Amino acid sequence: MAFKDLFRSKPRYVTVDLSTKKKEIPEALWTKCPICGQMLYAKELANNLYICMKCSYHFRIDAKSRISQLVDEGTFIEFDAELQSKNPLNFKGYEEKLSKAQKVSGLKDAMISGEGMIYGRPAVIGVIDFNFMGGSMGSVVGEKVVRSIERSIEKELPLIIVSGGGGGARMQEGILSLMQMAKTSAAVARLSEARLLYISILTDPTMGGIFASFASLGDINIAEPGAVIGFAGPRVIEQTREKLPTGFQTAEFLLEHGMIDMVVHRKNLKKTLKKILEFHPKNHCVEDIDSHGLPSPNALK
Amino acid sequence: MPNSPFFLDFEKPLIEMEERIAALKKFTEEKNMDFSDEIARLEERACKLGEEIFGNLTRWQRVQLARHPKRPFALDYIKLIFHDFIELHGDRHFRDDPAIIGGIAGLDGRPVTVIGQQKGRDTKENIARNFGMPHPEGYRKALRLMKQADKFGRPIICIVDTPAAYPGIGAEERGQAIAIAENLKEMTKLSVPVIVVVTGEGGSGGALGIALGNVVLMLENSIYSVCPPESCAAIIWKDGTLAEKAAEELKLTAQDLLKFKVTDEIIKEPLGGAHRNYTETAVRIKEALLRHLQQLSEMTGEELVRERYNKFRNMGEFFEGEGGG
Q1: In a 3-state reduction of DSSP, which class is residue B143?
Q2: pLDDT score of A285
């Protein structure tokens, strides 16, 4: 099937424009695994969800690939695709950086958000894309996260956000980027008060302002194997003259220290989401809930 | 010596002139001679000089003033603004973080909870207080005290002055990012007035972790930034020495933040900066606190929660629709 077919077009919303980024597979036929050095046939690597066939290293993937891996074919509707960054600080070179990032990624900013089905269960889904300025959060990403949450509340849908390469707060928007941390976390509080499920998926790398706000506030935090996740960058920490322990700031390190619920292999991610969603029936499966809006004893039968 | 422990380069001419005036006064007393005309002339010149230097500060100069080692810190303000402060310790999980202090105090007879980041005055105290850079347990202590304040209906005053949340192994192991995120999430639910005063350095997430207030005030020479200018320069231009340039780009002064509506009001400092007159600075902060507290006290808990939410919900600037550039 064509990748295009994944996205059902609906006139009310702007669908993902795929024309600028048709090639899923890099031009090079072979890709070298940065961990084990194995030469990987690009097509095979793509079919393997961009996981190294030899050592299981999880390559970073762009937001569109992520959505195609998680969302049922043809069910994704994108929202707020028209949001674009301003240069509120008149930060030198920011406009150039933005237009370059738009060309490289085919996106208007570092996040795609919308609604789609996961094994037939609807959810609001947001994915951050590392290819757009390192997946950093400025006003647009912050606004998209909050609008996703507002949509979840309005439609009583679960929320899934993949911090796929969240590089932290975007420096070029200065204090306004920092305030997106407050804004998104405040919105998560509202989502929580509405008793709606929020699954945060942390992929490589999730750092700084993104991890220190909405990305760490999931009811369930899931990380991909080997993903680098942390508050401060390792180079900054090394300056404190502390010797970094092996595996520092990896998904496994965070699991060991109690910061995340589980580390899930990319091949099992969608199935894991399905299971979790099944445990959280809400209005979309009316027969599964009792008069208090809570799961009925027969919800899973 | 760009970072002399006693004065900054641009303060030097003023301090030298003041020293001359003081010497002349002392001489007058000792020798019983009249130099009053000369003294008056010098004082007038000093005053003009002060206005010249401090009336037109660059962003980088304000960064230096915000970090001035003699600047009043949270405990100085607590002593001058509040009465009967009782410090409360610990996060009830791991340890007490001396980089964040907090407790109960009276503000003109009204019980409040005060929380602040605390830098050290000398090397020994700085080591103990980790240069005002909190660990996760500091943020957890702050949250514990805020929830306590909420329970007993006490307004919360947060004094922000930190270079950053500490970037260290222990901090990462104990969930620095999660501690800050939890604070941001929980602070939106507090049904008591929360007033934040940025008095020195508002260092990124480390500052924000206690700064989600109904009202955010900033001292005239304080800063509040997404990252320190040094790191910004290192990341963007691969050169940490371009901090001065980065400070200009980052728009991190109180005056900048007023334009972005991130701060609600600037509290004017005495001429030459807060460190030159602790008492006067404290008086001005206290006046602002009482005034805002009076206004916020007229709101219900629900209104306080809603207003605080809306304030932060609306932050950010972007294009929407086809008009985007």
Answers
A1: helix
A2: 53
- How is chain A split into domains, by residue range? 27-59, 61-288
Tell me: pLDDT of B83 over 60.
Answer: yes
Q: Report the residue from B231, B316, B325 with minimal CB separation from A139.
A: B316
Q: How far apart are CA A56 and CA A37, in angstroms?
A: 12
B49 backbone φψ class: left, alpha, beta (φ>0; ψ -120 to 50): alpha
| Cβ contact A183–B236 (<8 Å) | no
Residue (of B139, B265, B145) closest to B210 by Cα position: B139
**Using CB atoms, which residue from B168, B181, B317 is nearest to A86?**
B317
Alpha-carbon distance of B138 to B129, in angstroms, equals 11
Kindly determine whether residue B317 and residue A88, on different chains, have CB atoms separated by under 8 Å: yes
- Looking at chain A from residue 146 to 185, which residues have their Cβ under 8 Å from any Cβ of chain B? 146, 169-171, 173-183, 185
pLDDT digits (tens, 9 = 90+) for A232-249: 988 788 877 778 888 999
Shortest CA gap A77–chain B (Å): 17
Residues A211/A161, Cβ–Cβ less than 8 Å: no
List Cα–Cα distances, B31 to A69, B18, B19, B24, B27, in angstroms.
Answer: 89, 20, 18, 10, 6
Q: Is A53 on the interface with B (CB under 8 A)?
A: no
Quick one: A27 exposed, middle or buried, by C-beta within 10 A (0-12, 13-18, 19+)? exposed
Cβ contact A211–B262 (<8 Å): no
**Per-residue pLDDT tens over the stretch B4-32:** 456 899 999 999 999 999 999 998 888 88
Residue A124 token pair? 């609001």
3 state SS of A218: coil
Phi-psi region of A251 (alpha: psi -120 to 50; beta: other; left: phi over 0): alpha
Architecture of the domain delimited by A61-288:
Alpha-Beta Complex (3.90)
List the 77-116 stretch of A: residues with Cβ below 8 A of B.
82-86, 88-89, 91-92, 108
What phi-psi label fits residue A152: left (phi over 0), alpha (psi between -120 and 50 degrees) or beta?
alpha
Residues of chain B with C-beta less than 8 angstroms from the C-beta of A208 = 177, 205
Tracing tokens 């943020």 back to the chain, one arrives at B139
Q: Are B164 and B234 in contact (CB under 8 A)?
A: no
pTM of the model: 0.92
pLDDT-derived band at A298, boundaries 50, 70, 90: confident
Tokens 């460190």 found at: B275
Distance CA A232, CA B151 (A): 33
Query: Measured between alpha carbons, how far is B173 from A253 in angstroms, rounded to an integer?
Result: 8
